[in-house]
């Protein structure tokens, strides 16, 4: 593969359980993805990020892996995976696997052996410590609530889990463990995949000695981030990981990297020697929360100015040396129309404006399944209908804080991860064409109006708008400027106008997004040569330097 081939990639993220059911059991599977590769190809993308399909007890929907070398039977067989890789590559689509190496399932063979002999070889693959006076080894709080330590029944030992108690943290200080991980990742690369999405990767290094910290809550515990998020020395692990696996193959990697300080960003994403090809820019993904991935009932109001500030700050840090993965949705986030737009913009114009805002940025764009249709958040009738463990924990936390059932459910409607995990809406037939059996998760009731079959036939649909933007980015006369070109914010002082320019050699493209439900004028510094795209179809202009932007209008201009 060409060096840095991912610069000219647009990635489509598939959540396998919710994409397409080929064997009529109500759950999506690998054969279902293979059957729908032509749909993905028709959209124009050239890479597919596959959420975990490894063997797993599914405590966190596959992010708790019990066997890294085999496919979970709920998704199919090992041969089905081989077929998917082959058929995708045949269509020019590279497969990116989700790789979870901060932790594994408590049902993994290594941990089962560790429990039997905590002081033995496999016990050293994990953080297994004796408790203190009947209490856990330290006061760390799990990301999902409660102690980050779980007792090993019948022993004085506890094991560390930053996430659920079935997700046991690896001890990356152990060289033998690291060798096993590198061996496994190279095995997948040998099978023909093109790279990895690195899950929760900045948690792999723990503070030396696993100390307790001053409590940050009434429970007497403290966030695990103090002792396990982007700790000093993590760069040594990440350098070795890169050099022993994907780095020597020009494979693409994207890091889910919470906690990286500004001054270290380029270390992670330098195109010369970064730990990864890119990292996700999540800076503006949860602006309604005081602290990302924290309490959904502690929300604050956000404005388009907040989105603009955070987005431009991240791209300023990356500069021309680094590279970002740019996204609006994924399997852990609400749907972007409901999350990034005020109610008056939750329509075609708002959705198409968000698409322009994202797709023209410097970096590799990621489209999450259904984003190209404008799929929406889904209101579930009861907390029991939800599947997501985080949603159930957040609901319990809100009720404990004194919120009523109705109030707590509103928080879930807004922020639940299940908003993004409802079955893909293929057509208007029963269960949105996802399955003839009752799906594993509720189908959004709007599928009669929002579905792929309908939108692919409509010239003015959100689906066709995404298709046009993807083509513009990776196979048009503007490809070089939109991939290799630098990015610079413009008109930053103008409220609710998100505007930037892309520059490559002697070419310049300007992107204007009117991020509000009212008209406003945009005064350019020089004349434009051509209107490349406008989500209203045609611009309103008195002269070549001035545009009247309508509500949620997005314009791409060649200068």
Q: Which assembly state applies to the chains in this document?
A: single chain
Largest sheet, spatial ordering of strands: 1-2-5-12-14-15-16-17
Count of DSSP-assigned helices: 16
| Percentage of residues in strands | 15-25%
Main sheet characteristics: 8 strands, parallel, barrel
Helix fraction by DSSP (H/I, runs of at least 4): 25-40%
Q: What separation lies between the terminal Cα atoms?
A: 33 Å
Helix vs. strand class: alpha/beta
In one word, what is the shape?
Answer: globular
Report low-confidence residues grouped into runs of 5 or more. none
Polypeptide structure, described:
The protein is an alpha/beta fold and 559 residues long. Helices cover 27% and strands 18% of the residues. The chain contains 16 helices and 24 strands. Strands 1-2-5-12-14-15-16-17 form an eight-stranded parallel barrel. The protein has a five-stranded antiparallel beta sheet with strand order 18-19-20-24-22. A three-stranded antiparallel beta sheet has the order 7-10-9, with no helix packed on it.
């Amino acid at each position: 593969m060409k060096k840095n081939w991912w610069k000219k990639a647009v990635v489509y993220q598939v959540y396998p359980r919710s994409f397409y059911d080929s064997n009529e059991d109500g759950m999506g599977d690998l054969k279902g993805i293979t059957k729908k590769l032509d749909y993905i190809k028709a959209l124009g993308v050239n890479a597919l990020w596959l959420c975990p399909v490894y063997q797993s007890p599914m405590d966190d929907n596959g992010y708790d892996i019990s066997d890294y070398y085999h496919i979970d039977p709920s998704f199919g067989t090992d041969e089905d995976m081989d077929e998917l890789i082959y058929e995708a590559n045949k269509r020019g689509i590279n497969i990116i696997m989700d790789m979870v190496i901060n932790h594994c399932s408590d049902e993994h063979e290594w941990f089962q052996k560790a429990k039997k002999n905590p002081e033995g070889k496999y016990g050293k693959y994990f953080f297994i410590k004796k408790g203190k006076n009947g209490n856990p080894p330290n006061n760390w709080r799990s990301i999902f609530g409660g102690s980050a330590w779980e007792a090993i029944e019948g022993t004085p030992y506890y094991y560390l889990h930053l996430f659920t108690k079935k997700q046991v943290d690896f001890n990356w200080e152990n060289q033998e463990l690291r060798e096993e991980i590198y061996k496994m990742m190279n095995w997948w690369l040998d099978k023909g995949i093109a790279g990895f999405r690195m899950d929760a990767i900045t948690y792999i290094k723990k503070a030396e000695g696993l100390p307790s910290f001053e409590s940050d809550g009434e429970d007497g515990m403290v966030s695990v981030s103090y002792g396990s998020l982007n700790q000093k020395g993590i760069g040594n692990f990440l350098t070795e990981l890169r050099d022993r696996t994907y780095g020597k193959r020009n494979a693409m990697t994207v890091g889910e990297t919470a906690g990286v300080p500004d001054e270290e960003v380029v270390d992670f994403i330098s195109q010369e020697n970064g730990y990864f090809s890119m990292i996700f820019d999540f800076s503006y993904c949860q602006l309604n929360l005081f602290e990302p991935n924290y309490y959904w009932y502690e929300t604050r109001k956000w404005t388009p100015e907040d989105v603009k500030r955070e987005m431009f700050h991240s791209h300023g840090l990356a500069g021309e040396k680094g590279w970002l993965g740019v996204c609006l949705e994924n399997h852990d986030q609400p749907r972007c129309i409901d999350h990034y737009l005020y109610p008056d913009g939750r329509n075609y114009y708002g959705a198409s404006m968000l698409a322009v805002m994202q797709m023209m940025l410097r970096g590799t764009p990621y489209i999450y399944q259904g984003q190209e249709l404008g799929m929406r958040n889904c209101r579930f009738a009861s907390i029991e209908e939800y599947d997501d463990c985080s949603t159930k924990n957040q609901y319990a936390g809100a009720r404990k804080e004194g919120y009523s059932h109705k109030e707590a459910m509103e928080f879930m409607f807004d922020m639940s991860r299940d908003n993004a995990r409802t079955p893909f809406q293929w057509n208007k037939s029963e269960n949105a064409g996802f399955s003839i059996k009752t799906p594993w998760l509720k189908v959004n009731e709007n599928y009669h109006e929002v579905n792929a079959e309908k939108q692919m036939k409509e010239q003015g649909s959100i689906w066709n708008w995404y298709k046009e933007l993807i083509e513009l980015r990776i196979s048009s006369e503007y490809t070089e400027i939109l991939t290799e070109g630098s990015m610079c914010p413009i008109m930053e002082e103008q409220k609710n106008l998100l505007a930037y320019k892309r520059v490559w050699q002697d070419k310049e493209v300007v992107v204007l997004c009117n991020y509000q439900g009212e008209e406003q004028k945009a005064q350019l510094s020089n004349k434009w040569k051509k209107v490349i795209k406008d989500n209203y179809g045609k611009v309103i202009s008195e002269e070549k330097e001035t545009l009247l932007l309508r509500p949620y209008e997005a314009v791409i201009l060649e200068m």
